[in-house]
Design goal:
Keywords: FAD, Flavoprotein, Oxidoreductase
Strand content: 5-15%
Largest sheet: 8 strands, mixed
Helix content: 40-55%
Radius of gyration: 30 Å
Protein name: Acyl-CoA dehydrogenase
Pathway: Lipid metabolism; butanoate metabolism
Cofactor: FAD
Family: Belongs to the acyl-CoA dehydrogenase family. Belongs to the 3-hydroxyacyl-CoA dehydrogenase family.
Strand order of the largest sheet: 3-2-1-4-5-6-7-8
Distance between the termini: 77 Å
Length: 719
């Protein structure tokens, strides 16, 4: 009747339901054709997929990969021609439906399965003008289809059993819960139940028994929770104790029957509509529809995850060292070929997934625009704070420190979407907060860290100078002179990330008295301190790098980092953050690899996707090898850091090797795009440019080579 394994699906109608279906189909690897007469079809598809990709029940997916599987086809006949399955989502008008199905039947393959998302029109009525109604049936989802599992499969009078079986199997492969409705009835089943409940809800509100808001609370806190785990019949059967439903109906049935007779019969008059609508609008005033929808879907996914069948307990004898377990809540990224992320505990995987969804939803859509304009998206700072990931690797009174494995994967996740945002967070959490944690006194930590954890105060790290980069340890010219209960700083710093808007800047300066490098926290607005944005930067353009000038800048002794007495203390901070740069390199490679794979599947030359060509596959496999080997190094460095056993040379080798491989991988990715690889709209050029910054900062390749060389030979080769 229909292809055993459908590969091509036509989505007819690109409203809310149709776009949700298209996202789900693409997420399962199907080739999707979307048809609708709306003039903004292509823009609507792109916007919807980029929003919905972060809310898929199995975990966020790269929207660009999904979009590479979707083709916009304005013509109806062209869209359905050759499709294995057609999912119709047009307006609920019977004459329009009949016209659509008649046109689709003439263009579709004879064995194509034709499904309708209608929420109440009978399939027999829709099929009236079809020559072959045996392949038409209803596949009615609950909104949104990409999240809520139910699909009501409703056959018409002339629908063949083979079509019903094919529809059920098709939906099951998508992770849906298909239920065959045995008899046609307006509204089918779920909507009739919903209508009955809503009718009584309206009656109770109009009668003054309860407010709309309290009624929502009652439903979600009682029968909503109960019926999510057991439907009405099972719930009442359990409520009857060992005697089951029979016992309950015998004892409570008479009272229930009396309530049935007393149920309200409200009319949806214009006055009633106005009353209910006004109350709801006032309740949700100021809350964006998109945010409310995303929050509803997040809660729905959490419920579905909780209801999922528990995984069997793993046999400890069969577990690899480290207790690696795979979690269905965190689908493997395209670039994580060996599933390293599943080394994380289940709670840590949930943190990573939540962060991934936020990045795909909020950061990816704006990354290129801010990069092009060299402007920082300040509106994202409160949202990052709400994620609860800032400074996660440091202990607080209310929680222990997270593992370096988790903070590493979070760094890679940021860099995979936008390396500039990863750098912002790395400078703040790694360099600035790390300086306070490692070099500050308990009093200083109590004064500065709470605001830094909450991103109420942003940090920067001022070490590099205009004429002192790699040799800054011995060649630092910024000076500090003790003057009573203060220090006077003079000098200049360059390439200071976050420097234009940081509230707290950790400045490293050489003490004129003993020649040792010391650390100072300079607060924004301190006299003698100026920060000017560097212009003309062609990498990490969203990061606001500053030239900083200190002219007789007085800093209280209380703001000198009390445990930073030499450059060895500065190196302690760098040892921590060099490992973080390795993670950033992994993430940047992953991002470049993902867009390259998507492009290889979508770009056609010589009549075929370029991904079919051997040389293109060679590029992709080599990129994947660079990612995988680098990820292995980053994971081991994180484990050493968690054991407090990571040496300078180990962090230096990871930074060195991972950024060299990064440079090679993004170059291959850009080459794969050809001329399009120089256009920002294809993303790859952003990763290509940003890789140069990761390659250069936190120790160049040459300097890190000498650090490792010194460790393995015992010989100093810096000068």
């Amino acid at each position: 009747m229909v292809a055993d394994e459908p590969r091509v699906v036509a989505v007819v109608g690109a409203g809310t339901i149709g776009l949700s279906w298209a996202t789900l189909f693409a997420a399962h690897g199907l080739e999707v054709r979307v048809q609708d007469p709306r003039p903004d079809l292509e823009q609507a598809v792109g916007a919807a997929v980029r929003q919905l990709a972060a809310t898929l029940p199995g975990g966020a997916q790269d929207p660009e990969v999904l979009l590479s599987r979707i083709v916009v086809v304005p013509d109806l006949e062209q869209a359905v021609a050759g499709a294995d399955v057609v999912q119709e989502n047009g307006p609920e008008r019977i004459e329009l439906k009949r016209e659509l199905f008649a046109r689709m039947e003439s263009a579709a393959r004879p064995d194509a399965l034709v499904l309708s998302s209608t929420s109440g029109i009978m399939p027999s009525d829709m099929a009236r003008d079809m020559a072959h109604p045996e392949r038409l049936l209803v596949g009615h989802p609950f909104n949104p289809p990409h999240v809520v599992p139910l699909v009501e499969v409703v056959p018409g009078e002339r629908t063949s059993p083979e079509a019903v079986a094919a529809a059920v199997e098709f939906y099951r492969r998508l992770g849906k819960q298909p239920v065959v409705v045995r008899k046609e009835m307006p509204g089918f089943v779920a909507n009739r139940l919903q209508s009955a409940l809503f009718r009584e809800s309206v009656h109770l509100v109009l009668s003054g028994v309860v407010s709309p808001e309290d009624l929502d609370t009652i439903v979600t806190s009682s029968i909503g929770t109960r019926w999510a785990t057991a439907g009405p019949f099972e719930s009442f059967d359990l409520g009857g104790g060992p005697g089951g439903l029979r016992h309950l109906l015998e004892h409570l049935g008479p009272g229930m029957a009396r309530r049935w007779k007393d149920l309200g019969q409200p009319e949806l008059t214009p006055e009633t509509v106005e009353l209910l609508s006004s109350a709801t609008e006032q309740r949700f005033a100021g809350q964006a529809y998109e945010q409310r929808t995303a929050e509803r879907d997040r809660r729905q996914r959490a419920v579905l995850a909780a209801l999922a069948e528990p995984e069997p307990e793993p046999d400890p004898e069969l577990q690899p060292e480290g207790g690696v377990t795979a979690s269905p809540a965190l689908p493997r990224l395209l670039g994580d070929f060996y599933g390293y992320e599943h080394l994380l505990s289940q709670p840590d995987q949930e943190v990573l997934l939540r962060t991934r969804e936020w990045l795909e939803r909020e950061v990816r859509p704006i990354a290129n625009d801010h990069w092009a304009r060299s402007e920082f998206p300040h509106h994202l700072i409160p949202q990052i704070a709400e994620l609860g990931i800032v400074g996660l690797g440091y202990p607080r009174a209310d929680r222990p420190a997270a593992s370096r494995l988790l903070t590493g994967f979070l760094s890679a996740e940021f860099s995979r979407v936008d390396t500039s945002m990863a750098t912002f967070l790395g400078v703040h959490s790694g360099l600035a907060m790390g300086s306070v944690v490692l070099c500050g006194s308990p009093e200083q930590q109590a004064r500065w860290l709470p605001d830094m954890f909450a991103l109420r105060k942003i940090g920067a790290f001022a070490l590099t100078e205009r004429d002192g980069g790699s040799d800054v340890a011995g060649g630092m010219t910024t000076t500090a002179r003790r003057d009573g209960d203060a220090w006077v700083l003079n000098g200049a710093k360059r390439w200071i990330g976050n420097g234009t808007f940081a509230d707290l800047v950790v400045v490293w300066a050489r003490d004129e008295a003993d020649g040792q490098v010391k650390g100072f926290v300079v607060e924004k607005g301190t006299p003698g301190f100026t920060a000017t944005k560097m212009e003309g930067k062609l990498t990490l353009r969203t990061v606001q790098n500053a030239d900083i000038v200190l002219t007789d800048c007085r800093v209280p002794e209380a703001d000198r980092l009390q445990r930073a007495d030499s450059f060895r203390d500065t190196s302690r901070v760098l040892r921590l953050t060099r490992g973080g740069v390795a993670w950033n390199a992994v993430g940047c490679m992953m991002g470049a690899y993902e867009v390259a794979v998507a492009y290889a599947g979508a770009r056609r030359q010589f009549g075929h996707p370029i991904g079919r060509f051997q040389l293109i596959q060679d590029h992709l496999v080599t990129m994947l090898g660079d990612i995988t080997s680098s990820l292995g190094m980053a994971v081991q460095v994180a484990r050493l850091q968690d054991a407090d056993a990571c040496l300078d040379e180990q962090a230096a080798l990871a930074k060195l090797v991972c950024t060299v491989r990064l440079r090679e991988a993004v170059a291959r990715g850009r080459e794969l795009f050809g001329g399009n690889g120089m256009l920002l709209e294809y993303d790859i050029v952003r990763y290509w440019n940003d890789a140069e910054a990761l390659y250069s900062y936190e120790g160049t390749r040459e300097i890190n080579t000498l650090i490792v060389g010194r460790a393995i030979t015992g010989l100093q080769a810096f000068v």
